[in-house]
Structures are given as C-alpha cells and as structure tokens.
Write a structure and sequence with these properties.
heterodimer; A: 210 residues; mainly alpha; 2 domains; two-stranded antiparallel sheet; 10 helices; 70% helix; B: 437 residues; alpha+beta; Neuraminidase; 5-stranded antiparallel β-sheet; 5 helices; globular
C-alpha cells in the first residue's frame, strides 16, 4: 500500500503533466468534451503502472515533488477559465503572475547558492518550522494582500497549509514554496522583463529605433 | 478605504487557517537535547590482548564496498555493505551477514534490498544504490540508511531508510528522506548515526554536488527530518564522522576534499551540537579518503584512516589523548606502498595478503583474482584498503571493517586490552594502566 505522501507526489506530478498539456495552444481548438476526456485519460494513464511503475513515478524520480507554487502557476489560467465558464456572471480573469515570478526570481537567486553550500548560513534550515521564517512569510502575504497580489498570497498560503498538513514527503517548507524548475523559469522571465524595461527606458536605445 | 471583495476575504480566512496550523506545528518541534551517553560497557572482556582478521563474505568476482557495523542485542555483530558487478551497476544490492564472536565466524551473507525493491516501494525511478549505515533507535528497532540515485552519478544521491524490528532479519519498505532543496539530490551517508537523549536521531551526511560539505541531520523518532546544520562549506570536506565524548561534547572528523593541505578536517561542539566550531585542519594526513573512529570511554579517541596524502594503499589506527589536537599512529593495518603493481606481481601479493588475512580460506588465489579484476587496468594495478567503519561493543571489543581491494570486506577485531597495549607502546595518554571500560 503506497504512503499518503507517495500518492500526493504522484498525483501532483500527474496534475502537472495535464496542466502542461493544457498550455499547448493547439488544445484550445479541441472541442471541450473531447479535451476533458483526453486530459482525464492522460491523468489516469499516467498513474497506472506500466511494467513496474507508473510513468509519473519515472518523472517524479527526476523532478522530485513539484512545489505548490509551481502547481498553482500551472493551474492558474486553466482553472480560472473553467471557473469563469461555470460562473459566467462573476467573469473572473486569471491573476497576473508577474509580481510572483519576480519574488520567486529574487528569492531563488539568493536562496539556492546559499542552500547549495556557499558559506555557513543555510536558509534551507529555516524551512524546518523556524517561527521567524513563518512570521516573515506572514508579513509578506499581508503586504501582498493589501497590494491585491492574489497569486502571491495564494501560493504562500497554500504552500504553508500543505506543509502544515504534511502533504508531501518533505518536511521542509521551502520544498512547498520553491523548486528549481520554477526558479529557472522565474529567473529567465524576470531577466527578460527587466531587460525589456531597461531597453525601453534607455534613450540611446529609443533614438536608435527612430 | 474600499471593503475587500468576497474573494479577498476568503483568501484572508484561508491564510489565517494556514498560518495558525504552521505556528502550531512549529511550536511542537523538539527542543535541543543532549547526546545519548554513556555507551554502557556491560561485560568487560577477559583482559586478553587479542587481534584477529578475516573476510566478511567469500563472494568472488564482484565489486564490494562501503561496509558498516552494528552490535546486535545478543552481542553478535551485523555488517552491511553494497556489492554488484561494479560500483553503481543496476545489479548492486545491500547485503548483510552476522559475526558470532564466540564462534569467530561470519554467517552466509544475504541481500536485504536492491534497486528494484527500492524503486517499487518509493514509487520513483531509482538508478543505483550504495553506502548503507545502520542505527539502533532508542526504542530498539534497527534503521538502515542508504544512498539512492535517480539521475547522474553519486552527486545525484538522496537518502533512503528501511526499518527492522527483528535485529535485521527482515526489513520494512523503504522510505526516502528529503534533505536538499535542489530536486532532493546530493545527500549521502557514510558516518555512524547516533541518538539524542530525547529519542531523536542524529545522522551525519554530506553533499557533493556543486559544493562538498558536511551536514548533520536531526530526525524525529518516526524518521522525519526536523533540523539540519551545516558543518563545513564550499568544497572543503565530506563524510563527517561523529565522535561523542559525553552528553555535551563531541568532535566531528571529515574527509578532506581539497587539493592542498591534505589533512583530516575537524569541528567540535561543547553544547550538544547547538553550535559547532569553524572547521580546522588536523595533523592527520588524508588522501581524500573516508575516516572512521570511536571516542573511548577514558577520553582518548581512536581512528582508522588512510594516513597518507596519496592513494589508499596504507591503512592505520591512530589515537589522540588531547581531544584531537595531536595524533599518533599506533598500528599499521595495511601498507602496500611502493610495491611493483604489474598484474602478475599484484596477483602474488594479493594471494599472500588474503592468506595472511584468514588462514582458513582454501582458495586465496581466487581472492587474489577478484582483487585483480577490480584493481587492475591494463598493466597497472593498485592496492586499496579504504572506507573504514569502526565500532566498540558493550564488552569493550573493537570491530573494524574496510574495503579490501574493492573485492571483499575485511574484518579486524581487537580487544580493549590489545588496544591499551598499542596505546601505551605509543605513549598515548597519561595513565599507562588506563582502562577503556
């Protein structure tokens, strides 16, 4: 009988596979019923054992358990679409991820080098329930809440909640907040964004365009 | 100021719930605790100076490495090691055998876990397994921590644990520890785990991905990682070995991975591991090879190591009576420096060494052939005596196992009386009649 944390880990990997398929533009042209059946079939098949293990077990062997933040980002647009179709009067749109990605990028740029051995300070240690770390996260979400950065609040709150409930096999809160794939994506997108802003503000660049 | 929308309000409620649970969980984390000490020496030996050697397993033509030991409740010794067609191969298994000191004999060895059983239980792909280290938990069960790799080489390792409630005859399903933020890769074990007084467990581990550094994990009695501390940083040292002197004091020795000043690294604590001193070089030479040791009950420290700056052809016992400030070699277990190592001569020397290790073996040439298989490349061969692992049993005897030419595990046992003689001959310690138990 698999552990609860193996089931959540495999389930999260399967959700990530389905969510990534939904990001493919071509899926927008598939009739809704067929799309639901197709994605449902992918979800189930990815969890069924082929040979010794399900396909998601091989993916999980390489990727580890994806952070809650990654899952929220992957599901952000599709879930909002579904909700807006279910409740057309509310007419919600997906929250913008820009502020969240910048926060992830700056945090990752400081966190990973230190956690991987530069110097004697290890920020990863704080993830084992350090009350100051939890307080810092609380202050961040309160600030983000006042600024209406819904996605930042949602990611940190769901990560903290799932960590408190021992959702994954990791007992470290950082593993719920961040993962290297998310960090790389956030660093690349933030660098591109800042690069574009810099070029747009640079008068030399503007004049060279005209 | 505008009132928050229903969505914003619900988010705040969810946040209140999440952070209430988080602070509650944080408040239940165990407080710092003293080390479990002393190790009770219940049954002193017969004061005979004895020292014996033998091989743990006769399995031939396999690659064998990374042995570790644990004393069983009945006084027998259980060994663990990994073995397969080559290090890192898919057929590598963790194997075990039991040594009966009364009979002076090892049992037949058996496999307890392999790559397939591990990946089926963990529900994740596992490419290879390695380095097993055992622990008796405060409740009496045995835990065996070992290394698993899903991607890449040993730098891609994570730690898996299995548990036994019948002294190691049968083992429960593997469970993985998450110890690193980078896809949980690059945490390995080599040094002996230990217990704190509050039933939590200390597990010395190390990283060798971008950095090479030692860490100390603290696990709850149920095996959940609850804390970790960094012992060194950068690319200085790996494979920490914990030597507990009393409830508050301990030193940790680490294999030096730097390219210059090839010396064993040490760090110390005087407050049960809340704080560790900055890592320093000791006077012990180290060719980037594992160290093992025991803190003796009279305060002296005994280590087994390759005490040269190059290669692993020499293995010695060294001791310190001043907490690790100075060391003296008290006995040379192996020394094959400056031997001609063409395959023919290597075969002859290996056969002699096998016969000297255990006079009861009937086929020393087969042992030599196994060594040649693993340690000769073309016309060049090299002796290797490495990866020591040493324990002291309740009767005061010491047991040391190490890799013998990557082919066998060699077992050296010696009584505390034999050790005291060696210590006294080397003028280690202030009292010539010091008792170790």
């Amino acid at each position: 009988m698999p552990n609860f944390t193996d089931l959540t880990g495999l389930g999260s990997t399967a959700i990530a596979v389905v969510a990534m398929l939904m990001q493919i533009p071509a899926t927008a042209h598939i009739p809704k019923v067929r799309l639901v059946v197709f994605l449902g079939a992918v979800f189930v098949l990815s969890l069924l054992p082929f040979g010794e293990m399900p396909i998601t077990a091989y993916i999980r062997g390489v990727t580890g358990d994806l952070s809650i933040t990654t899952l929220v980002l992957l599901l952000n647009v599709p879930v909002t679409k579904i909700l807006s179709q279910l409740f057309p009067r509310v007419g919600t749109t997906a929250p913008k991820a820009r502020a969240l990605l910048m926060l992830v990028a700056f945090t990752s740029a400081a966190f990973y080098p230190l956690a991987l051995g530069i110097g004697m300070f290890d920020p990863y240690r704080m993830g084992y329930g350090d009350p100051f770390f939890i307080t810092a996260l609380l202050l961040i979400i309160l600030f983000a809440w006042f600024k209406k950065s819904t996605l930042i609040v949602l990611c940190i709150v769901l990560s903290t909640l799932t960590w408190s409930l021992n959702w994954y096999e990791s007992s470290n809160l950082w593993d719920y907040l961040l993962d290297p794939f998310l960090a790389i994506y956030a660093l690349v997108s933030t660098t591109r964004l800042l690069g574009r802003r810099f070029l747009n503000r640079n008068p030399l660049h503007k004049s060279s365009k005209t | 100021m505008a009132l928050p929308s229903l969505r914003q309000f619900l988010l705040l409620v969810l946040a209140a719930l999440a952070f209430s649970l988080a602070f509650y969980k944080s408040s239940r984390a165990p407080a710092p605790a003293p080390f479990q000490w002393p190790t009770q020496i219940l049954d002193p030996d017969d004061f005979v100076a004895k020292m014996r050697t033998r091989f743990v397993s006769p399995r031939q033509n396999v690659s064998t490495h990374a042995a570790s030991l644990l004393e069983m409740n009945d006084g027998r010794i259980r060994a663990f090691w990994f073995s397969g067609s080559r290090e890192g191969a898919a057929d590598v298994e963790i194997r075990t055998a039991v040594f009966d000191p009364e009979l002076d004999k090892w049992s037949d060895d058996v496999s307890i876990v392999d790559r397939n059983t591990t990946q089926r239980a963990l529900l994740r792909f596992v490419k290879k397994i390695g380095n097993p280290v055992p622990l008796r938990t405060p409740d009496g069960t045995l835990q065996l921590f070992y290394v698993t790799v899903s991607v890449g080489g040993w730098a891609g390792s994570s730690i898996t644990v299995i548990t036994s409630t019948d002294e190691g005859t049968t083992w429960g399903p593997p469970r993985r520890l998450v110890t690193s933020p980078f896809i949980n890769i690059s945490t390995l074990v080599k040094g002996s785990p230990f217990a704190y007084n509050d039933r939590t467990i200390g597990l010395p581990v190390y990283h060798e991905f971008i950095g090479k550094f030692g860490e100390l994990l603290r696990l709850s009695p149920s095996g959940e990682v609850i804390d970790k501390q960094r012992l060194s940083s950068g690319r200085l040292g790996i494979q920490p070995v914990m030597l507990i002197k009393n409830q508050q004091q301990a030193i940790i020795l680490m294999r030096h991975t730097g390219t210059s000043q090839k010396r064993v690294i040490a760090t110390a604590t005087a407050d049960a591991g809340r704080h560790w001193s900055a890592p320093e070089l000791t006077t012990l030479a180290n060719p980037d090879a594992a160290v093992s040791g025991v803190a003796l009950s009279d305060g002296r420290i005994l280590v087994a190591l390759n005490d040269t700056e190059m290669n692993r052809e020499v293995l010695s016992l060294a001791a310190s009576s001043d907490g690790g400030a100075s060391w003296k070699t008290i006995y040379v277990l192996e020394d094959q420096r400056e031997q001609i190592t063409d395959p023919v001569r290597y075969l002859q020397l290996s056969e002699e060494l096998a016969r000297a290790t255990d006079s009861n073996i009937t086929d020393p040439s087969a042992y030599a052939a196994s060594a040649q298989r693993n340690k000769c490349t073309g016309q060049s061969c090299q002796f290797e005596f490495s990866y020591p692992y040493m324990i002291q049993t309740r009767n005061g005897d010491l047991h040391l196992v190490y890799t013998w030419n990557r082919s066998f595990i060699k077992h050296v046992s010696f009584s505390s009386t034999w050790l005291i003689q060696r210590l006294n001959e080397s003028a280690i310690g202030t009292s010539p009649n010091a008792q170790l138990h």
